[in-house]
Amino acid sequence: MYYILLIVGAALVNNFVLSRFLGICPFMGVSKSIDTAVGMSMAVIFVMTLASFVTWLINDLLLIPYGLGYLQTIAFILVIASLVQLVEMIIQRVSPPLYQALGIFLPLITTNCAVLGVAILNIQLKYSLLDSCIFAVGAALGFGLALVIFAGIREEFELNNIPKAFRGTPIALITAGILSLAFMGFSGLVK
Amino acid sequence: MVGGIGFVAALILGISAVTFAVEMDPREKAVLDQLPGANCGACGFAGCAAFAHEITENVEAEMACPAVNENALKAMSEILGRDLGGGAAFIAFVGCKGTPDQTITRYNYVGPRDCRAAQIIAGGSKACAYGCLGLGSCVDVCPFGAIHMGEDGLPHVVEAKCTGCAKCVDACPRQIIRLIPKSGNYGVGCISKDLSKDMKQYCKVGCIKCGLCENICPFDAITVSKDSSAVIDQSKCRSCGLCVSVCPTSVISFLHTPLKARVIVEKCKGCGICDQVCPVEAITGKPKEPYLVNESKCIGCGLCIDKCPADAIERIVS
Amino acid sequence: MKTFKGGIHPPEEKELVKDNPIADFPLSSTFYVLVQQHLGAPAKPIVKAGDEVKKGQVITEPLGFVSAPVHAPTSGTVKEISKMVHPVTGLLAPCIVIDADGKDQWADGLPLERDPSVMTTEELMGAIKAAGIVGMGGATFPTHVKLSPPKEKTIDTFIVNGAECEPYLSSDYRLMLEQPERVLGGTLIAMRILGLDKAILAIESNKPDAIKLMESKAPPQIQVETLKVKYPQGAEKQLINALTGREVPSGGLPMDVGAVVQNAGTCAAIYDACAHGIPLIERITSVTGRGIKHPKNIKVRIGTPIKDVIDFCGGLNDAAKIIFGGPMMGIAQFSDDISIMKGTSGVLVLTEKDTNISHYSACISCGRCVEACPMCLIPSTLSKAGEKSMWQMALDNNLLDCVECGSCTFVCPANRPIVHFVKYLKALQRAANAKSKGA
Amino acid sequence: MPRVKGHEMKDIFVSSSPHIHSPEDTPWIMRQVIYALIPGALIGVYFFGIPAIRVIAISVVSCMVIETLWQKLMKQDITIADGSAALTGLLLAMNLPSGAPWWLVVLGSLVAIILGKQVYGGLGNNPFNPALVARVFLLISFPVHMTTWPAPRAFFSQAADTVTGATPLGALKTAVFEHGTITAAPHLNLMDPFFGNIGGSLGEISALALILGGIYLIARKIISWHIPVIYIGTVAVFTGALWMMNPNLYADPAFHLIAGGLMLGAFFMATDMVTSPITNKGKIIFAVGCGVITVVIRIWGGYPEGVSFAILIMNALVPLINKVTRPGKFGAV
After folding, report:
1. CA distance A184 to A187
2. Do A185 and D319 touch (CB under 8 A)?
3. What integer pLDDT is reported at residue A160 of this predicted model?
4. Which residues contact D195 (CB under 8 A, 6 or more apart)?
5. What are the angstrom distances between the C-alpha of C346 and each of C14, C168, C170, C207, D207?
6. Which residues contact C212 (CB under 8 A, 6 or more apart)?
7. Where are the domains of chain B?
8. Which of C4, C123, C9, C1 is nearest to C368 (CA)?
9. C424 and B108: CB-CB below 8 Å?
10. Chain A partners within 8 Å of C418 (Cβ)
11. Residue-number span of the structural domain to which C128 is assigned
12. In what order do the strands lie in the sheet with C346-350?
């Protein structure tokens, strides 16, 4: 029961994109169409889970014993970067069209604050290894959910006649704002 | 210690880099940056990225992008190490002068405001089968905002913005808009193939095929026949303007009629917005007093007209 | 009572002309006979100015199998081969102008007296082809092509379409009431050609007297089926679905599910062609609508100028729209320089109050069009795609399944011309295909 | 040969088929929804007096003025006649407490019309229900103003009108929060909220009036029954199950249906055509989703009333629902 609450907490209540406002740049960049959004979510879930698993181990086995806590951020970024490189190659070989569609945003996951955010949050909230992985899965699902919902809305914008000044990112930012307003309804759900 | 992690990671990546190798030509990226990026499809490819790929890979590929300017062309030639030749600059020209009051419409059209949609119902509401329906399909498809609907119900091309990408030529259901080289100076405002005695019934400003222009033109750059309006061969035309003077229905017009902006004194509130937006500083004046447009400097781009809150600026033919 | 999914209930407005018996139309002085009066390959005039023609004499020669000849509506001399506005396309099309000599003299031998039941199917088919019979419901598809499906298609159901679901019109209704033998005779002939021993005659329940009469007169092999009153009940795919439950495959034809559908008027014409050798030179048309003074059902010759028809029915009173066919799928006309064609099931004159000329506003996704669409499409998406000329996106939303019945546009509260957008998208798609094939 | 031998009839109209149209158009629909809202609004005015009229008037007028201004500024054609701005104004007013200060109402109208609708391109283009966007925006930006519920009193009685009472749901939430059981909340006989004698936004208090309005809309076929019936059903089933499990921790379903904004939400907010799915199957999924989220927020969430948030979240899912519930192809080959 605790784990379900953990996942729901990470995915809905303090959703990474809509409540914590992490990972906004891929959120805006990749949400043009639903299939790229799904592709991106898969990539993020994979990277986030592995990253939090590896970073937790590094933190627990290497950083704390040698008192190198201050190296935390750089080490984490290094791990995430290599993981992203791995994912990038796999996707490029497995489905080139998805690779073309994701384009610049795939390497961008490296600097994606959501992924790094999960790793650091795991340490701050003092989760156990298992907890941090589940938290990462929850966070990634939350990110993916928000991304796919947002992509659904933005695909409808093709058909609307949005005033020229608002087309593209401005309307996306306004919609993301209202979406996070809606997700605030979940606040206080999990203590 | 961080080096340790770095080393381990590098090892993994090295192995996987070999197994998943797919390379992409860096020159393609550089060429893509030079292209305008409007993905207008005039080069016949899906978008600028596809065209950049083609011109990098295929050595004989021609520079088919009309919307590229001179220095971008030079830059691309250096990147690819071969001369891409000059993209002949073209400009769109509207071959119809039939304003609603000069022509007869056969019925009141009810339906979507789009020429292509109107054309498929009973062949369009205008009595002339070749005349412009004025519902703005060309304006909708122009990616550069270079064509707009004038008060006279006909499209006007803004020379400064038009890149000759020919999207409006395809959009017009009656093929009224044609591409004319920028070097050319005169265009015929009618493409009707009907005999003049029939055309007179429904259009007062069409080409009546009298042939006066053909006779007077010293360079026989203009040809007229019984069932085709006057056509100017731009390569021969020396822009002497004789044909314009003899044409009874003044169908032939000077191509580069630089549309000028002129301030309507009584409407102007002196807010100065036009002065700020004018790209060539052709507008001067003091706040709270009517502003003035210097016609020699003005290139007729129409930015001031779009921005003016009081609609106090009008387009005039200089 | 059987019916199909979706559809709408427009006001029937049939009482304007329903009870007027079929009136014989006086002979006009000049006839404008269009050369292209069918769906399919064009035909070529075989007479020239000055020729003498007799009533029923063939005056054009079809080029290709899917084509149909046209015949002189009366005896007289060919004045000229000129052009006039074609009611369907609105563009100029070749037409044969015949000055009637008033004698109305039949061509040699016509009308014959022969018993179709003894004729071989080849003779029957030959008679239909020679008589230039086309679908009279409005599609004008050559009948001899429809009645000769390719061998591999097994046909097990023949449906006679007496639904007449279009509001205002009652030409089929009057035909079934006053001349049931012609309809039934034609049905039997068609059944023999298709090699079937039973057929279905479908009539909407708002024509009870026609149903009763047909049930009493119909031989046992022809079963009269009553259908719920709903538009577009008479559309081929909906009629087959309602009567047999089968769905014509997307992009396919009725014969793919073993069915052939013919309009009641077409069956009557088949009977005349086979029994008396009379070509299709006359048809029953409803001239109705509040824009015409005395609505009438008239038996009128093909090629009769519309001016004569309007004068015969008392002239116009503040007409806003003149439509060939019904209000839902008919084609609006703009010039009175046109004439009756083989497919003119009705001449409808609407006043400004009855028709819809207001501008359209934004779609509010109310879903009425989705419920109304008999082809299970989402018309609102098609209309939005139409506004943006996005035909590829429309193709993914089954654009080509749309039969343009008009139900969505009728119910749309925002007055959006969805059928016009669909026609526009289809035109864009055809142009793009042609360009890609050509390039 | 010219196209026309001078025969054309100048004033004839030509358009694509079909040439006839049903009498129902968008302004007619908007008017019917406004008529359906009038009973609820009247009850609100009856119980909250002049302030309620003030809020409604300000809200409707400012919505219409803002829309006209925006369209003038953007050089678009003025569509005030279709009544959608007036409807948004009325709906927004019914979501606000009658004590709301005038600037709050004007700000709400601004957010509803500009952020909720016009920025997306006007009527029919907005993914979220404008009135709800404004309500949630105000609820989160001005929680104090939005949750001071003037006590209801008969229109003519002279009782002091500054007494503020909590809404039934609010009382329930504090009771559970402090004492862990609902019995601590002041006992409520169910007739009060049914007729409107409870605290709450000026439009949502009388379930009876709203149900009447809803039935009128369904009878006139403006909205289909799918969303309201399934939405209220889901809430009833969900709260009923919880109530069965632990009566003193969870309130009984009848209470949940009548109290709070469920009736207003189910009949008027969730059924806003522009922001709800287009197929009936989609409407069912949408309604179930709204019901579940409403109950989750009411029982476990931080806010006493979950209807607004639930509908907004489900509005976001509508494009996906529309994509999933596309009707099957006719004669799928």
Report:
1. 5
2. no
3. 87
4. D43, D206, D208
5. 12, 9, 8, 18, 54
6. none
7. 25-85, 89-182, 205-258, 260-316
8. C9
9. no
10. none
11. 116-276
12. C22-24, C296-301, C282-288, C346-350, C321-324, C331-333
Distance from C-alpha of B49 to C-alpha of B31, rounded to nearest angstrom? 9
pTM of the entire predicted model: 0.87
Residue C337 belongs to a domain: no
Chains that touch B (3 or more CB pairs under 8 A): A, C, D
- Please choose, from the candidates B117, B252, B255, B220, the residue with its C-alpha nearest in 3D space to the C-alpha of residue B173: B117
Enter the ipTM.
0.82
The residue type found at B266 is E
220-239 of D, contacting C, C-beta below 8 A: 224
Contact, D226 vs D283, CB < 8 A?
yes
Q: Are residues C391 and C252 in the same domain?
A: no
Rounded Cα distance, B39 and B34, in Å = 13
Q: Which residue of B has its CA nearest to D74?
A: B309
- Evaluate the CA torsion angle D241, D244, D245, D247 in order and state its sign: positive
> What is the reported pLDDT for D3?
39
Nearest residue in chain C measured CA to CA from D271: C366
Q: Which of A39-48, A58-67, A160-169, C292-301 has the highest mean predicted lDDT (pLDDT)?
A: C292-301
SS3 C350: strand
Q: Is residue C159 part of a domain?
A: yes
D160 has pLDDT over 80: no
- The answer on C374 and C256 residing in a single domain is no
Rounded-to-integer distance, Cα C196 and Cα C311, Å: 45
Question: Among residues C215, C244, C276, which one ends one of the domains?
Answer: C276
Cβ distance C158 to C190 under 8 Å?
Answer: yes
AA letter at A178: I
Best CATH choice for the domain B205-258 from the list 3.30.43.10, 3.30.70.20, 1.20.120.610, 3.40.50.1110: 3.30.70.20
Write out pLDDT tens, residues C224-235.
999 999 999 999
Same domain, C129 and C269: yes
Looking at every residue in chain D, the average pLDDT score rounds to: 84
Look at domain B25-85 and name its CATH class: mainly alpha
Q: B89-182 in CATH: which number?
A: 3.30.70.20
Domain at B260-316: CATH architecture: 2-Layer Sandwich (3.30)
Amino acid occupying residue C24: D
Residues C376-395 pLDDT 10s: 999 999 999 999 999 999 99
CA distance C433 to chain A (A): 23
For residue range B211-270, list pLDDT tens digits in order.
Answer: 888 888 888 888 888 888 888 888 888 777 778 888 888 888 877 655 678 888 888 888
d(CA D301, CA D305): 9
Under the phi-then-psi rule, with left for phi > 0, alpha for psi from -120 to 50, and beta for the rest, what region is D295? Answer: alpha
Which helix H or strand E contains B181, and what residues bound it? strand B177-181
Which of C243, C261, C276 delimits the end of a domain?
C276
Q: Is residue C327 part of a domain?
A: no
Is B198 an interface residue toward D (CB < 8 Å)?
yes
Flag whether C411 is in a domain. Answer: yes
pLDDT-based confidence at residue D245 (cuts at 50, 70, 90): confident
**Per the structure, how many domains does chain C have?**
2
Judged by CB atoms closer than 8 Å, whether chains meet at A85 and B1 is answered as no
Measure the CA–CA gap between C34 and C433, rounded to whole angstroms: 30
pLDDT at C437: 83
pLDDT confidence of residue D2: 34
Token pair for A136: 């990462």
Long-range contacts of A165-174 (CB under 8 A, 24+ apart): A166/D119, A166/D120, A169/A28, A171/D119, A171/D120, A172/A28, A172/A31, A173/A28, A174/D115, A174/D119
Q: Which of A33, A34, A153, A159 to mutate to test the interface with C (most CBs of C within 10 A)?
A: A159
Average of per-residue pLDDT across D122-129: 91
